[in-house]
């Protein structure tokens, strides 16, 4: 009797529970063409390939027949064709990949391979595609808060009957304090590299020498066991303060109380249910306050599921969104990290060194700057997809196009996350040691975020002035003297043509 071929890629470490071991050949393939069009961070590549190699070992130890193709220049079709010749393959099953383009490519194989093809939905999410579509049906705008309440009721996390635990759905107002010097944070756990990871490090250096990022000190978890240790560490030490420091930014503190769990969730080393169960238990045990647990669970059952649902709902048109019609090139310093702006340098150097920056750094420094500067959405999207260990298109694209660039015109966010230097100064300790003056709008040492912010409003007046949440900012702009406006716009023009930032 013929066998079925199950194809696994590094972004979906699928556990084949319902398949028959005797009738299934599992193919784990590291195909270079899928990782070469974008200069993915070397640490991200090591995480993906090492987790896949460990996953294959685990499957073998459980009695599965696994064929492993290490980094190859061959096309995936060639690898599959070889396997079909070696084994009597009569059908193929594919675990859902993390991008629309790859899913389309897989669908197109049906004809080319002349094999019946089954695409398995990723079970590492709480909601299926169909369930999300049902939620979205008939809505003009997709607001997170509506989705989040729907998910709270559906999952029963932090619920007492039909009412939210503690009496409120959302404790955001009690969270999000600015950074204070003297705060101390527990460092996330560091995992030693074993022989498998060391071999992957060599392979990545060899095959992707020009890719972005520093490979030194790779210490991500690459097995389920270690990812669980990272989760337990977060729940015990950082979760209690999670909400309070969620929006803070501090020099020399890349992680603060963030969980650093997204790289593991996104490849399937951790499941969202497992993560939320652990947070809920910490609340029930009385060790963690409601505002911290609610803030964290919202990120997982709210933001993560919502972003994933929107990606599959809105693709492929979403990829070409460009509401502000911007076309500027991404400044070179996003890659080199060489800039005099302390806030940007902090975010960029830790991105280069750790393949990680926390949410507010992504949103309010690097994302905010790109939007104010008028970078083409496609260019900033490709940068984000390359540089973070957790970046897979289904999660990166809506966060960049919708949330940080407002390039979808407000499908996802109710207003652009645009801010001047004052916001960064309030939430961080960056400005005290910056070459630029955060309180100045004009002049050679004025904080670039200031003039670029007003220039952004001015350029997009027609598109934004009727947005209720932007009225206050526009009123301030209209109240400036003409001469002041001209000086601000001149400074913004100089910064963009080209300037020593
Ligand atoms: P924590 O702050 O500890 O949050 C807990 C978890 O909640 C995260 O691990 C993540 O799984 C989930 N989460 C929180 N916010 C979001 C969100 N907006 N979307 C989806 N999940 C969320 N996240 C990615 O996983 N991959 C990306 O490529 C990515 N790109 C982003 C780009 C931009 C411009 C912005 C503004 C955000 C992006 N995010 C992305 C969302 C968020 O910044 C990261 O999930 C988070 O910083 C990961 O770090 P953490 O695990 O320490 O998160
Ligand atoms: Fe960033 Fe401006 Fe503050 Fe410098 S002064 S750190 S550029 S916000």
Task: Enumerate the distinct ligands.
Answer: flavin-adenine dinucleotide, iron/sulfur cluster
Helix-strand string: EEHHEHEHEHHEEHHHHHHHHHHHHHHH
Q: Rounded to an integer, what's the Rg over CA atoms?
A: 24 Å
Fraction in beta strands = 5-15%
Global shape: globular
Strands of the largest sheet, in order across it? 3-2-1-4-5
Instruction: Give the strand tally.
Output: 7
Question: Can you put this structure into words, describing what you see?
Answer:
Helix 4 links the parallel strand 4 and strand 5. It is built from 21 helices and seven strands. The chain folds into three domains: 3-120, Rossmann fold (3-Layer(aba) Sandwich); 129-314, Serine Threonine Protein Phosphatase 5, Tetratricopeptide repeat (Alpha Horseshoe); 333-500, DNA Cyclobutane Dipyrimidine Photolyase, subunit A, domain 3. The protein has 501 residues and is of the alpha/beta class. It has helices at residues 33-36, 42-61, 76-86, 100-113, 129-136, 144-155, 195-207, 224-238, 262-267, 272-284, 290-314, 333-336, 342-354, 359-373, 377-387, 393-404, 421-427, 448-459, 461-464, 471-479, 482-496, and strands spanning 3-8, 24-31, 65-72, 89-95, 117-120, 159-160, 163-164. Iron/sulfur cluster (SF4) is lined by residues 341-343, 421, 424-425, 430-431, 434, 436, 438, 447-449.
């Amino acid at each position: 009797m013929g066998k079925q071929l199950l194809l696994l890629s590094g972004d979906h470490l699928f556990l084949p529970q319902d398949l028959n071991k005797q009738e299934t050949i599992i193919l784990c393939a590291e195909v270079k063409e899928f990782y070469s069009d974008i200069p993915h961070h070397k640490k991200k590549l090591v995480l993906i390939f090492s987790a896949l190699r460990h996953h294959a070992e685990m499957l073998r130890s459980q009695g599965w027949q696994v064929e492993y193709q290490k980094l190859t220049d061959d096309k995936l079709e060639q690898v599959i064709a070889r396997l079909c010749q070696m084994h009597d393959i009569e059908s193929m099953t594919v675990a859902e990949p993390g991008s629309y383009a790859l899913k389309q490519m897989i669908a197109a194989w049906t004809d080319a391979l002349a094999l019946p093809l089954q695409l398995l939905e990723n079970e590492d999410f709480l909601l299926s595609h169909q369930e999300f579509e049902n939620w979205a049906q008939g809505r003009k705008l997709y607001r997170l808060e509506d989705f989040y309440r729907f998910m709270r009721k559906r999952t029963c996390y932090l619920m007492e009957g039909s009412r939210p635990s503690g009496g409120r759905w959302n404790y955001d107002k009690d969270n999000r304090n600015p950074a204070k010097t003297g705060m101390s944070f527990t460092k996330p756990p560091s995992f030693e590299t074993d022989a498998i990871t060391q071999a992957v490090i060599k392979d990545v250096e060899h095959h992707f020498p020009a890719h972005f990022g520093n490979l030194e000190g790779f210490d991500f978890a690459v097995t389920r066991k270690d990812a669980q240790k990272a989760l337990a560490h977060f729940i015990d030490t950082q979760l209690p303060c999670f909400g309070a420091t969620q929006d803070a930014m501090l020099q020399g503190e890349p992680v603060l109380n963030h969980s650093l769990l997204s790289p593991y969730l996104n490849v399937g080393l951790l499941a969202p249910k497992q993560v939320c169960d652990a947070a809920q238990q910490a609340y029930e045990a009385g060790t963690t306050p409601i505002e911290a647990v609610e803030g964290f669970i919202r990120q997982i059952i709210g933001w993560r599921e919502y972003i994933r649902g929107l990606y599959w709902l809105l693709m492929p048109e979403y990829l070409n969104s460009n509401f502000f019609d911007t076309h500027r090139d991404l400044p070179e310093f996003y890659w080199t990290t060489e800039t005099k702006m302390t806030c940007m340098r902090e975010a960029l150097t830790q991105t280069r060194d750790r393949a990680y920056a926390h949410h507010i750094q992504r949103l309010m420094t690097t994302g905010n700057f790109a939007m104010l500067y008028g970078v083409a959405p496609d260019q900033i999207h490709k940068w984000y997809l390359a540089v973070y260990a957790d970046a897979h298109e289904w999660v990166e694209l809506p966060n960049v196009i919708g949330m940080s660039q407002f390039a979808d015109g407000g499908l996802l966010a109710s207003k652009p996350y645009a801010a001047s230097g004052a916001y960064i100064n309030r939430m961080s300790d960056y400005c005290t040691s910056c070459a630029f003056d955060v309180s100045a709008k004009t002049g050679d040492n004025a904080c670039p975020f200031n003039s670029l912010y007003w220039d952004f409003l001015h350029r997009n007046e027609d598109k934004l002035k009727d947005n209720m949440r932007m009225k206050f900012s526009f009123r301030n702009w209209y109240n400036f003297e003409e001469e002041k406006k001209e000086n601000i716009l001149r400074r913004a023009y100089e910064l963009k043509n080209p300037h020593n930032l």
